[in-house]
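lol so apparently i was supposed to do this last week
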Amino acid sequence: MQDSYCLETADLCYRYSNSDVVLKGINLQVPQGSIYGFLGPNGAGKTTTLRLILGLLKRQHGIIAIFGKRFDTNRIEILRNVGSLIESPSLYNHLTASENLSVWLKVHQCPKGRIAEVLYLSA
Ligand SMILES: Nc1ncnc2c1ncn2[C@@H]1O[C@H](COP(=O)(O)OP(=O)(O)O)[C@@H](O)[C@H]1O
Ligand SMILES: [Mg+2]
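anyway here it is w/ adenosine-5'-diphosphate bound
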């Protein structure tokens, strides 16, 4: 696992409990500072791969490293520095935009002023 890659997987494999093998030996090497297109037909396993990388699915086989560190043993530290959005944003529909942001403000321990800054950026 190299520091020059912000994300690396080696021989990542996965099967859902009631299905055939979905991922067979996925080797990703994403260089630091790059914009990476992860393409494939419907059902190829892109979402499954991303869920594994973020720990939303339990790794069954292979290695995942982010920022040069093994995900298994550095999960919290890694996730503190990762932003993710898989397929649809996770928002509380009964809260306003500002209230939703205040949830993330607490999680990431950001200063209060960030809410106005971020709302201004998306206006
Ligand atoms: N929760 C699940 N249970 C069983 N099979 C699933 C589940 N989610 C996805 N799959 C199957 O895994 C394969 C890969 O799906 P997915 O990772 O969503 O592909 P992609 O994002 O590339 O379209 C597909 O065959 C899909 O039907
Ligand atoms: Mg998908």
